[in-house]
Fold these 2 entries.
Entry 1:
Amino acid sequence: MPEPALLDIAHLSFLEVIRSLIEQSGATSAKGTLIRLALKVGERLPKTDFPTLDAFLETLGVGANPISAIEGKAVHLGGGLVALPQCPFAPAIKNYQQVFGSLPGAYDAATAEFNKPSPITDAHHIGSGAGVSPFCCVHQPLRSTAAAQITVGGKPLVIYELGCKSETGKKALADKWIAEIGLSPADVEKVLDSNMCCYLVKVAS
Amino acid sequence: MLANEGTVANLSNVKPIGSGGAKAILQSLVAVEGIRTAVVVSRDGFVIDEASARGAVDAEAIGAVISTGVGSGFAMGHELELGELTQSMFEYQGGFIIVTLASPEAILAVVTEPTANLGNARYQVKKRMPELAKAL
């Protein structure tokens, strides 16, 4: 007889709080709340200085920097382009789906809001099509704020979110940021063939 | 050249949606007797502009709570099939908050003294709404 699926109540609570937030305060407000939450957490991460951008990028593979602390090990593909093989929310999503089958329907509205152009997503070079779930409303601004706490020779890092892939394999691209950094959507899609998230790291000028 | 290079990722990065004309309208609102604070926030709760007759206010916190509070009002209207929320008022021991949809993407919240003439406050808000919508 197969073991019954166990539900991690920390995961369940978090996913249900997001659902409730969307249903009770609306998708637009919920999106803003999730982004604010992420920015506040990101601002509290430790400040770290690296002598060079390469020195920082080398730490992505071993998970030894504040960004890796929130999302795990990543792969530097060259030129500051980074791929994340695993979504940090994957365990929560998998656990929830094992028990309930699918994510709450309300999530789609919040994801759509995150993908709409807005001053806050523009300010952090996130969203703009690169969201696949409300978890992106947390993950992407958190990563951008974590990056701003990291300096190279005193200058903060800046991140451009380029694309993301859902657990079902659907790819979502931020055409605006892809164009701005001079890549093509095909480049990012190729990265997402074997990864869940793709972004560019630069040092602020 | 990358846009926003050199900025750090905090709320102060957020650029106003409008051309900046909203500030003058908000300042004219807080010059009305009984109106204490006027703030415009985006529907997702980030402050676009604010003015206060009582010195500095925590606009960031105000934006967040207005968005969440009014978001419930929007959700309620949709659930009951009443369409978009256009105006809402909250009465507290210390004053009133009049919340008005300023544009599809922005909300105006006006905080008054408890003794304010509410009819006049609402009139003053309504009178400025077309100009504010244009400025956003």
Entry 2:
Amino acid sequence: VRLNGPALGLLVVAGGAALLVASLRLPGVPGQDYGAGFFPSILAVALVLAGLGLVIGGMSRHLDALVTPPPWMRDPHATANVALLVGIIALFAAAGDRIGFIPFAVGVLFALQWRLGIPPLRAAVIAVPGAVLFHLLFVIVLRVPLPPGLLERFL
Amino acid sequence: VNEALLAAFGHVFAPYTLMVILIASMLGMLLGALPGLTAVMGAALLVPFTFFMEPVPAIAALVAMSAMAIFAGDIPAALVRIPGTPASAAYAEEAYAFTRKGEPWRGLGICVATSAIGGVFGTAALILAAPQLAKFATSFSSPEYFWLGMLGLSCAAFLTTGSPLKGLVSLLVGLVLASVGIDIATGLSRFTFGSTELLGGIDFVPALTGLFAIPELVRLVTSRTDVRPVVPRYTGMFRGLGRDLWRWRLPILRGNVVGTLIGALPGAGADIAAWVSYAMSRKLSRTPEKFGTGHAEGLAEAGASNNSALGGAWVPTIVFGIPGDSITAIVIGVLILKGMEPGPAIFLKTPDLIYAVFITFLLANILMVPLGWLVIRGARHILSVPRGTVAAFILVACIIGSYAINNSLFDVGMMLAMGALGWFMEENDIPVAPAILGLVLGRLVEFNFIQTMIKGEGDLLALISRPIAACIAALVLLVWLGAAWSGLAGRGEAADG
């Protein structure tokens, strides 16, 4: 999503203002001049100034539409791909421990390849060893425990 | 020194480290050769792995990966006219002209040889300059470090291509992100919204992965062009190479010097070095009309330049803790994660580690020739890996990489949030690299700032009371004035045009 100059500037100003309010509400420390909010409040002021600069700079130029969506949003196939991408990450963040790494990775490698035009059989043939390879790399070489999830009884 | 040097050789030539270097090199070659995947993203993907390694293999992996990726970007540039990384964009047209002339392998031979030469030159400059600068920097105290931090941050924000104001916004976003969590000075929690996971702050790795890799993934899954490149048959790239190199020895030398200097400049890296060197080569050439027609001169100069920039970028990185480019910004994050704060003291505390970095650089640039040859021979296969497979593997690597650092699903969600932020920033032409730098250096800058303020009892003059601090402060001021001037000039042009 592309905003035009003044809109982006206003967004930055709003963010800076919110940060300033939040920083000033942070408690000070008795006997110390600089509380936890001191540095963030400087950043907040800088953000407000930079945002104002963007507003002013944007005004003197030819104004684009307030909001320009990226070209792929007009392409339903591509938009669905992005939704799939976001959905996959959100799914692991929400339920990765219950699903487990290997089932999840096999699913992702298969689904995304298939979706992007690779024949299902070939996608599956790549997905299974691919997931196992990731698993071995992390569990054996780097010694990071990955969630077993659905495969708990087998691993 | 000798003991440290021996220890360094021991670190680098340990079988584990050598294996890591080899794997990271292959990964770098692959990522660099696949159009759209950059050396910076490769570094971001490597960080989770380095987290579980000893310091030397961790840093060696990043060094080897980035050197190979910057070279390998030349391969698709030459064969299908799509630069593999932005660092090859400057001379993609020239390299492709060799292919059109029917000499693709001669062009690539020049690329691999000059890349290796440039890499070795940049390393040599690093080896000579860094310890000298470090000696000078040992007398620095918190005001100097505050200003050095400011200098690094300012350069990163303002030296990016594009609007300096947007660079500044990016930097501030990074600094704000760094202030989330428990404040070191007061022990109070800030901006955590009651979340216990946020008390420790926003972790560098999920932030890095999200900011750099998610926008690239979005690009990968939304592009409709699945080009099936036509790669000519390999016929040998070493024939006549010696003659080409000898003939263009002066441009190559010039590319080395310019690339190293630009690399050492905070905020400017390999891609800018290549653009500058290519333009310079054309300007100083006796036959500028031949440029763009498969002429070796500019290709050799710029090909050497972008790889020498990598070594140059490490000079301010290790000496002052100010990254020379986006990759070294990531390196600083890794060094801090490993408990080694970059700065002049690192030469006294862990000289063996610094020597190990030097040796790895040399080793990687020597390895570049045989590995480059292998990858060039296999280019036909690498370039025909479908986009779906690439995207799927990168996505899994991103997810597992963010998860593995703290074994936390929360970090995966954080990666997604940072990805959305990174994507929004890219859409609006806000550079991402300054934000990473802000995130990495934020706490350090705040700490030095508060400490100096407390020491000076709130007197702002305390920040410039020492001569070197005042000099660096003047430099910072210069950078800011320069940015303001270029911003105003840019607006004037826009208004005129």
